[in-house]
Amino acid sequence: MLTKILLITLFLLFPLFLGYYTTFIALISIILGILTISWHFMEKEIGWVSFGHSVPFGIAAYLLALNPTLLFLTPFIFLIFLFFSFFGRRLFPFATFIASIALWNVSHYFVLNGKGGEEGFGVPFSMSLGNLYTLSMALLLFCYVFFEIISKSNLGLKIKAVRDDEIAAKSVGIDPIRFKIVGFFFSTTFASVAGVLHAVSFSHVSPSVFSPFYALFPFVVSKISFDKRWACIVGSFVIVSLSHSLSAFLPETHYILYSVVLMMIAVVKKNAENL
Amino acid sequence: MKILLEKNYRIILNFVDFKLEKGITLISGPNASGKSSLLKVLAGIFIPDMGKVFLDGKDITLLPPSERVKLGIVLAPERMKIALNLTVEDNLRFSDVEKAYEFFPELKKISKRRGKDLSGGERQMVVLARALAMDCRFLLLDEPFQGLHGDIRIRLIRIIKEISNRAAVAVVTHDEIEEVLKIAEKIYVLVSGKTKFSGNREEGEIVIKEMFL
Q1: For chain B, which has fewer Cβ within 10 Å, the N-terminal or C-terminal residue?
Q2: Where does residue A109 rank: exposed (0-12), middle (13-18), buried (19+ CB within 10 A)?
Q3: Which 45-74 residues of chain B touch chain A by CB within 8 A?
């Protein structure tokens, strides 16, 4: 794990010595890397695929913009996911996706009728790019190490046992609800951290934080990263860089990228089934 | 306890009265008679619609399975239920790993293999090993012989007999029924969710032989 951390650190330090724009794009990649790793934990370790991780991401960003003291509410965002989990594993991804789309629409209304300007709500404080980059990088490394440790711990083992078979887990004394709560809490807390960093980096929060771009981003990145946690960081850089560099020629490029990845997943899956 | 349990608008247990005491209790009956559901009610996995479960005179009906395990109520579920993406050793870590290997030393050789890569018999050994290695007062074995070959079945019967000297063991099985009959002290026969028979081995043996053997 130490070698991986060292390599990731070197990889993350490199953009800091490049131009402002490149560093900013790298910062967005790091922030969305935190979002992706938090999503990856929910999918891989807890076994719940969410197409609405933009919900904790966006809510935390809005809370910061409205009033930073409201951030104390972020640890409770997992309750939304716990509520959706009662729909069952099959409906969970769609329930979270519908929630993110609903919040996307509601927040448009909220921004226009509230105190937000055209760009959305302003964030009451700012940081220099270098400081924000360093802070985000440290949080990404912490997020990576945290989930690596949790995944290998007794707690992670119990979370995975619940994911694999709830009855088997119950029979050895594991309380599935308790471990689901813990897992959701960890995942949504880091997604909220990403949301806060995102708000600070843009200095404002617009309804787009709930958009399908953020809702589907972790899923797409995780898939192109072959479900490896460390590769999610690289994957995040790839999608953000491609999306930003191509958007000058073709607006909304990220949706084309998403479509390509989704089609590739379908093709690979079909080929694997035919083997 | 007179348990009533309904699932999907179907009565699974129809006011079943069941008592588990030290020694071996065989629960027999045709398919879908409610045997496994009865064990799940005892383990806390199913909550009965009516009736209560008592342990030492204390009502534990609403106690979750995690708390019941602490009280010594341990279930080895049917259908080889283990965490499929965890290794054998990781699955055994939920109980006493070394003790589990003592019951089934075969598992030591495959300790790093994932649950999904095991044969049915190997999975069943994992289910049994972790249940047997727990400090139990009440051991609930649901189809424990499933997937096991002859030698291990004989070993398991010996282990069940040993454990029954210090704990209450309930066995639901379709296999090795004659062997279990020899060591069982009490017999329950369930048919369509109702208790058709409950009593000692001698009388129970006659009922079971008439019905199934």
Answers
A1: C
A2: exposed
A3: 45, 64-66, 68-70, 74
